Amino acid sequence: MEENHGVLKKAEAELADFTARNNRNKKIVTPELELDRFKRSVKVQEEVYITLKKQLELAKIEEQERKPAIEIIERAAVPLSRSRLRTKMNVILAGFVSFCLFVGLAFVLEWMGKINPSEERTKEFLKYIGDIRNDFKSVIKALRRGRQKIFRK
Q1: How many Å apart are CA 40 and CA 47, to the nearest integer?
Q2: Using alpha carbons only, what angle is made at residue 65 by residues 64 and 71, rounded to the nearest 5 degrees?
Q3: Which long-range contacts (CB under 8 A, 24 or more apart) does 62-65 make?
Q4: What is the mean pLDDT of residues 6-18?
Q5: Directed axis angle between helix 2-24 and helix 31-66, to 10°?
Q6: In sequence order, what E strands does the chain have?
Q7: pLDDT (tens digit, 9 = 90+) per residue, 44-75?
Q8: Distance of CA 99 to the CA centre of its chain
Q9: Which residues, in sequence order, are CB contacts of 78 under 8 Å at separation 6+?
């Protein structure tokens, strides 16, 4: 392709040189024949170059299509020991986390009982806490309805 590109550039240079020479001195008897010959040479080289360029692009596309979408780097190995679910450990961990959260909630509720409800910021905070309490109640109701539906089936 690079070789053809060089030939195309050479043909274009010859055409430009011929045109420049012919314009300076009008001594050539049949300049149209010579000009047509150069134009044909340039056109042939352009067509060859375009064809080669298309074939290169098609080859690149075909190469991409032949490559697998997923490349396996290393095959999977059989594990040394069987992994099992740690249900007991997960239940104990969930219980501990929920216990900590409820103790924290108890401290917050105790602290809220001791604050002065007449302040503006305190009223706003208590309003947000009431909203959260109502949200929890609606979630618990929804869960109970869902559990009832499951047990009915």
Answers
A1: 10
A2: 75
A3: none
A4: 78
A5: 160
A6: none
A7: 888 888 998 999 999 998 988 888 777 778 88
A8: 42
A9: none
